[in-house]
Write a structure and sequence with these properties.
The structure holds two protein chains of two kinds. By secondary structure, chain A is α+β, with helices and mostly antiparallel strands. Chain A is built from eight helices and seven strands, in the order ββαβββββααααααα. Chain A folds into two domains: 110 residues, Beta-grasp domain (Ubiquitin-like (UB roll)), CATH 3.10.20; 130 residues, Alpha-helical ferredoxin (Fumarate Reductase Iron-sulfur Protein, Chain B, domain 2, Orthogonal Bundle). In chain A, the strands form two sheets. Chain A has a five-stranded mixed beta sheet with strand order 2-1-5-3-4. Chain A has a two-stranded antiparallel sheet with strand order 6-7. In chain A, a hairpin with a 2-residue loop joins strand 3 and strand 4. In chain A, helix 6 packs across helix 8. The radius of gyration of chain A is 20 Å and the shape is elongated. Chain B is mainly alpha-helical. Chain B has a single domain, classed as 3 helical TM bundles of succinate and fumarate reductases, CATH 1.20.1300.10. Chain B has eight helices and no strands. In chain B, helix 5 packs across helix 6 and helix 7 packs antiparallel against helix 8. The chains are: A alpha+beta, B mainly alpha. The interface between A and B is large, with 58 and 45 residues.
């Protein structure tokens, strides 16, 4: 395959970036998108050009490290796949592919295509946990009855890998899908109840502090989410926050 | 867990609650307004007297007065809150994408709510100048019953093609605004349930197109029939 890659190059957080064009030939359709970038970087290194910086880790769609806004969509044209699970067979020889970093004020660019998503970690730290004693006397999880439907929904919410595609694709750079998934996975289970009100208030507050936008309910995040996290989670967060605000002393 | 929260004022979610509540209230206002407008289908002296009687009632009856002040408040809240949300949303992405395929994952109306809202606000200003201002502060003649002749003012406005055309375009914009907003308000307020959401979406989508269709029908009727010419 012969491709024309248009890639965002930016030397550092404060530097000015620009799109640069790289023609590339010899790409195989069985390559994953990241392998294609590895292949490009090999060529760039041989030519004495600085390779393109991009995030990646597990390369099997579970770690949430890979990102990339490919041809105008987070994680590219596929549905329910991360960039590492996207393969070059989705493209045709002769295609021009635009590769940009996830864009949000809360996700500052580190270099080229790599962005700092630690805003998500801070939202998680604000309440995405349960305070339990883990010093050897942990209670067996199955000792507490949980309705099957709630267990399934909590699990679905917990499959969020925190990649940030929801933020990247949202016209408002809103983190509602991420935050609501991380809130829901606890609020649906009995173990999450004692801290449920504080959790939703704290995590929403941290989300706002990080500078993410608001939700217009366009539903774009749900479409682009590699794990198919549902908008139902955002509605759950909306009502949990409403009731917590009305009834909490905080 | 250390908790700080802006509660129901100032947080991102709270801003959206106020958008949803004021928006849904304004939806109920539209129903009332349309019911009043339907009287314009009755032409001739009889229709004129009845419409002017209705206009007198709507500007003097205390309960309606209170409702009208709530409506002005809701429009103000919806506008100011909407502007604040739009500014925050813009600030959340200082540098945009070179290539962005928004149509791949979201409807046009849902992505253009601020634009459609601005168009609607502009329309409201023009519309209130045309009728509300004239009714309250203008120099209208009186009909046989001594009521201000709002009917003649209204039908004459819609006999001009450009006024009718502007009205139809503005109401179409409102329809698109409602096609997303009316059902989305429920999601914002946390109402999303596998059993009820499909019914809510269907009902509110029908609402979003049928109510504006009613307004447009009255405008087209007035332009085509030109009832003011016969009196």
């Amino acid at each position: 395959m012969d491709l024309t890659l248009k890639i965002w190059r930016q030397n550092g957080p404060q530097e000015k970036g620009e799109m640069k064009t790289y023609p590339i030939s010899g790409v195989e359709e069985d390559m994953s998108f990241l392998e294609m970038l590895d292949y490009l970087n090999d060529k760039l290194i041989n030519d004495g050009i600085e390779p393109v910086v991009f995030d990646h880790d597990c390369r099997e769609g579970i770690c949430g490290m890979c990102s990339l806004f490919i041809n105008g969509e987070a994680h590219g044209p596929g549905r329910k796949v991360t960039t590492c699970q996207l393969h070059m067979r989705e493209f045709k020889s002769g295609d021009t592919i635009y590769i940009e970093p996830f864009r949000a004020k809360a996700f500052p660019i580190v270099k080229d295509l790599m962005v700092d998503r630690s805003a998500f970690d801070r939202i998680q730290r604000a309440g995405g946990f349960i305070s339990v004693n883990t010093s050897g006397n942990t209670i067996d999880a199955n000792a507490i009855p949980v309705p099957k439907e709630n267990a399934d929904k909590a699990f679905d919410a917990a499959t969020c890998i925190g990649c940030g595609a929801c933020v990247a694709t949202c016209k408002n750079s809103s983190a509602m899908l991420f935050a609501s998934a991380k809130i829901s996975q606890f609020s649906l289970l009995p173990q999450g109840q004692p801290e449920a009100k504080e959790r939703v208030l704290s995590m929403v507050n941290q989300m706002d502090l990080e500078g993410f936008g608001n939700c217009t309910n366009t539903g774009a995040c749900e479409v682009e989410c590699p794990k198919g996290i549902s908008l139902e989670n955002i509605a759950r967060m909306n009502r949990d926050y409403l009731f917590a605000s009305l009834s909490s002393n905080k | 867990m250390a908790t700080t929260s802006k509660g129901l004022f100032g947080s991102s979610l709270a801003r959206k609650y106020w958008m949803a509540i004021s928006g849904l209230f304004l939806c109920t206002f539209l129903v009332g307004h349309l019911l009043g407008n339907l009287q314009l289908f009755v032409s001739g002296e009889e229709g004129k007297l009845a419409f002017n009687e209705y206009g007198h009632f709507m500007t003097t009856f205390p309960v309606v007065k209170v409702l009208s002040w709530i409506t002005y408040g809701a429009i103000f809240l919806h506008t100011v809150d909407g502007i604040m949300l739009a500014l925050q949303n813009r600030a959340a992405r200082p540098e945009g994408y070179v290539k962005e395929k928004q149509s791949a994952n979201a409807s046009w109306a849902s992505r253009k709510m601020a634009l459609l809202g601005t168009l609607t606000l502009f329309f409201i200003v023009v519309h209130m100048k045309s009728f509300w201002y004239e009714m309250h502060f203008g120099e209208l003649g009186v009909d046989a019953n001594g009521n201000k002749d709002l009917w003649s003012l209204t039908v004459k406005a819609f006999e001009q093609w450009w006024y009718a055309a502007f009205y139809v375009i503005a109401i179409t914009g409102l329809a698109f605004h409602l096609s997303h907003g009316a059902q989305s308000a429920f999601q914002t307020l946390g109402i999303n349930h596998p059993k009820y959401t499909p019914i809510i979406k269907m009902t509110m989508t029908a609402f979003a197109w049928l109510i504006p269709a009613g307004f447009v029908a009255v405008a087209v009727f007035l332009y085509v029939v030109q009832p003011g010419q016969n009196l």
